[in-house]
Amino acid sequence: MKYLDYLGDVCKLPLCLGYLNSYFQTGLKNLLDEAVIEFFKNETETDIAQHFFQVDEIPFDFVRRRMSVILESNQDEQRFLISKGAVDEMLACCTNIYIGKDNDPSNAIFPTTDIVPITPKILTSIKNLNERLNNEGLRVIAVAFKRMNECSAFTVADESKLTLVGVCVFYDPPKPSAKPALQELLKYNVEVKVLTGDSPVVCRKVCEEINLPIKSIVTNTELEGLDDAQLEEIAENGTIFAKLTPLQKANIVSALKRRNHIVGFLGDGINDAPAIRESDCGISVDEGTDIAKESADIILLEKSLMVLADGIVRGRITYGNTIKYIKMVISSNFGNVFSVLIASIWLPFLPMDPLQLILQNLLYDFSQTSIPWDKMDPEYLISPRRWSAKSIAKFMVFVGPCSSIFDITTFVFMFYYYQCNNPDDHYKVQLFHTAWFVEGLLTQTMIVHIIRTSKIPFIQSTASLSVCLTTFAVICSGIIIPFTPLNRVLGMVPLPGFYFVYFLGVIISYCSLTSFVKVLFVKFFKEWL
């Protein structure tokens, strides 16, 4: 932190008055207020606040961009208004300037000499100083005062004809994790925009430090009077939006949502609360203001911003695995509906006993329990995805009938080759049930590895160990159960050896057909999961 006069020379008066302003304000103290108070106490041994008491204050708002306190001296009962805020807004209410060089805070905290009107030359010096400091990435707060008469109430109108004493300068560096976190977000096609109440020059400098690509910079005045279409266009193309009010932040978030973007907003201040609430995913931090945390959907407990990228990746993995499960189940059930419908029309007996069907579903569901721990292909994680019922319906119609083809093939094979066509032949009926139980269970389980990736399974993309183990366990169980004593309870019989020769051909053909359908689906619809 620095404290300077209008020429850029060290002057303690801005620090002293800035300290009194920050110390006596009753509103929420921001980081700058805390920095001023701590810095003053470290710089001086005398606490000047004990010589004053607060009479009133004019709270900060995001239009005036300044706040004021009215103090009364314990010694001579004189009253003073001390105001601090953004340089441009402070200059608008200052008519005089202190040009003295007295750096001793014990002398003339509220000077009566060395005060002159602000001339165009002085105004240019102040603006040049502010611009130079902003270009260095420093935040500048101007401090001013004036003597007050007895008054029962104070208003914004009293913030006029002030005497500028100088500026307090702060360096608020980006978090060390900001740059790597930004690169990770860009890697995963997350576009980053900065919505801030700070100066556009300061914001640009900080963004350059973290290598954020800047397309354009927009200030609050450029947003005034725009209709929805114009605001959407500016919100789409802008990178930095500076000197914004809380409502303008929320309006930009809303405009991006109307452009069909999914918008997350990270903020920790009162001014961020409307935008946090308006966003699809509001994010705040553990040390943020209460209203920001209350408005947020997620509160970060770690100080590292890398948790944002980690959260996005984890979210995409979770979403991808969820879609896997939904598409696996819905396509399998859709195919089974066709198979049961045809079997009901054609066969003179039930294609499978209810107990066998329940067991098949339980085993298949067990193979699905490991899906939440499955891996996603790196290519899938690069781009954000949206929930689409149409995509699921298309997947169901394309992939579902593949299983029905081989179910019907098994019906025909068992009906004619093994003569399982007499409802009175109890053994042949059980043989048919067992054959379809094994074929249905194993094909459904094997297809997990086909559906889980758009690549060639086991060659270009391998499932996680948990998925491999559960599917292998289910396949082994499906083959072994008919040969165990449980077969009597389940109404099954051991399968003949030649059936497994036939079944091997079914598995190879089924996987080949589904892989071919996958290629066509990706070609036509440019997606798989």
Outline of the structure:
Helix content is 51%, strand content 14%. It is built from 19 helices and 14 strands.
Task: Describe it.
This protein is α/β, with parallel strands linked by helices. The chain has three domains: 2-170, Calcium-transporting ATPase, cytoplasmic domain N (3-Layer(aba) Sandwich); 178-303, HAD superfamily/HAD-like (Rossmann fold), CATH 3.40.50; 309-525, Calcium-transporting ATPase, transmembrane domain (Up-down Bundle). The protein has helices at 13-24, 31-43, 87-91, 120-135, 178-187, 200-209, 220-223, 228-237, 246-258, 273-278, 290-295, 306-346, 354-368, 378-382, 389-417, 426-451, 465-480, 486-490, 497-525, and strands at residues 2-4, 52-58, 66-73, 79-86, 94-98, 115-117, 139-148, 162-170, 194-195, 217-219, 240-242, 264-266, 281-285, 298-300. β13, α11 and β14 form a beta-alpha-beta unit. α12 runs parallel beside α15 (389-417) and α15 (389-417) runs antiparallel to α19 (497-525). The radius of gyration is 36 Å and the shape is rod-shaped. The model has no long low-confidence stretch (mean pLDDT 91).
- Supply the CATH superfamily name of the largest domain: Calcium-transporting ATPase, transmembrane domain
The first-to-last residue Cα distance is: 53 Å
Number of self-contained structural domains? 3
For the record, the CATH architecture of the largest domain stands as Up-down Bundle
Which fold name is given in CATH as the topology of the largest domain? Answer: Calcium-transporting ATPase, transmembrane domain
Sheet of most strands: 8 strands, mixed
Indicate the CATH class of the largest domain. Answer: Mainly Alpha
Pfam families: Cation_ATPase, Cation_ATPase_C
Organism: Paraglomus brasilianum
GO cellular component, one term: plasma membrane
GO molecular function: ATP binding; ATP hydrolysis activity; P-type magnesium transporter activity
